[in-house]
Amino acid sequence: MHPNLIEYIKRYVSITEAEIAIFQTYLHSKKIKKKEFLLKEGQFCKSRYFIIKGCVRLFHFDNKGNEQIIHFGIDNWWITEYESLINQIPSQLNIQAVENTELLELPEAYFDELCEKVPIIERLFRKIMEKTYIAIQKRIEYIYSLSGEEQFRFFIDANPEFTQRVPQYMIASYLGMSPEFVSKVKAKIK
Amino acid sequence: MHPNLIEYIKRYVSITEAEIAIFQTYLHSKKIKKKEFLLKEGQFCKSRYFIIKGCVRLFHFDNKGNEQIIHFGIDNWWITEYESLINQIPSQLNIQAVENTELLELPEAYFDELCEKVPIIERLFRKIMEKTYIAIQKRIEYIYSLSGEEQFRFFIDANPEFTQRVPQYMIASYLGMSPEFVSKVKAKIK
DNA sequence: TACATTTCTTAATCATGATTAAGTTTTTTT
DNA sequence: AAAAAAACTTAATCATGATTAAGAAATGTA
Question: Model confidence over A28-39: pLDDT tens digits?
Fold first, then answer.
């Protein structure tokens, strides 16, 4: 198994070499080029993906036809479209590579089987979900308590790596702001 | 075990009578009166709570000293403050009863033990978290794609029971709007 | 190197929804 | 039933950040 994933897992749970070996058999690696899609609107999402290296964005088109970025994924993040994956319905969202991206794919079809063989995996994903939930709840807190300018400053302070890797207009979209406004705030900061 | 919780569990996983019986031994019932606190800022959150009947709100005070409601919990919802519970840090949020509320308390101290005895519980909570995550991600989608007026209309259409049970200014706070604005929109609807 | 595409910037105007300030209605308490 | 407190309404003014429109800079491609 890729050392990044082993290290990631060990941040959440204790796991044996044998358990890792079994987990490994359920994963296969995948590479997508910049601008390629991992999932398109209307398709069924059938896997969870661990990003070894790269960056993807999860987005949809809002009622006015504007791209709205829901969130990003970068190195050492799990990413998937839960609504499609869990409810087995067509995805309303797209997952697209922002950079050339190297992933590990964990197909959902065998996920329950894996959890029965290696119950610690169930715990791992329960804990990942809890952390993810804490993060998204904080995001809502910031949306409501900070001004647009404060949100942008906070984002670049908290995620300096994104600022390098992701075009500014995508950060604007993620933060629900117009690119023009971000440009104005940026000019003010310098 | 309370029939509401049994029914709730069965929506997510298959569970035997024996497993329910074990789960039961980890729960104790609790009642809080309207305006009483389940958790106060600064305290450590040590349990997950299942609401049998009633309504609570999870809120904090923002930088301007305004109450900001993060979310509500009503009948047949699990509620807790995950950041405090998982990271074992003092809570930044309050949980307060909006109505007299009847709960089942599941202490976190024995949660891992319970999951080892009854592994299906780990799966149950993993699945609950996934559903919860889908819901909160949709909330972010609506925040960014709907106008304030649309968000309010959508909320009351999707949650007519809340409109009856929760004061209007709390719904305003949950939606990140001023009570005056909600009042204006409501007048427009009639 | 030149051309094309993508991304970013600047500035003017406009709209949504906050704030302020009264006043009214409803609910709770005495 | 009266008084007090809590919740809601209305209307005027104001601010944040969107929209529009144009152009500049950066990046990619022939």
Answer: 999 999 999 999
Instruction: Using the predicted structure, report yes or no on whether residue A57 has a pLDDT greater than 90.
Output: yes
The pLDDT tens digits for B71-126 are 999 999 999 999 999 999 999 999 999 999 999 999 999 999 999 999 999 999 99
Q: Going edge to edge, which strands form the sheet with A37-39?
A: A37-39, A94-97, A55-61, A67-74
Q: Are the CB atoms for B115 and B122 separated by under 8 Å?
A: yes
Q: Is it the case that residue B153 has pLDDT exceeding 90?
A: yes
Of B93, B85, B104, residue with least CA distance to B32 = B104
Measured over the CA atoms of residue B107, residue B27, residue A115 and residue A110, the dihedral's sign is: negative
Q: Is A118 helix (H, G, I), strand (E, B) or coil?
A: coil
Instruction: Determine the protein residue whose CA lies at the shortest distance from the C1' of C17.
Output: B181
Mark yes or no for CB contact B176/A136 under 8 Å.
Answer: no
Measured in angstroms, the CA of A170 and the nearest CA of chain B are apart by: 14
Share of chain A above pLDDT 90, in %: 91
Q: How far apart are alpha carbons B82 and B101 in whole angstroms?
A: 20
Choose the closest CB to A129 out of B60, B63, B126: B126
CATH number for the segment(s) B3-119: 2.60.120.10
- Closest by alpha carbon to B178, among A138, A146, A177, A144? A144
Q: Is the CB of A179 under 7 A from strand C?
A: yes
Helix (H) or strand (E) run with residue A103 in it: strand A101-107
pLDDT of residue A102: 95
CATH H-level superfamily of A3-118: Jelly Rolls (2.60.120.10)
Using the CB atom, is residue A111 less than 7 Å from strand C? no
Q: Which of A116, A81, A109 is nearest to A95 (CA)?
A: A81
Nearest-CA distance from B4 to chain A in Å?
23
Q: Is the CB atom of residue A169 positioned under 7 angstroms from any atom of strand D?
A: no
Each domain of chain B, given as residue ranges in start order, spans 3-119
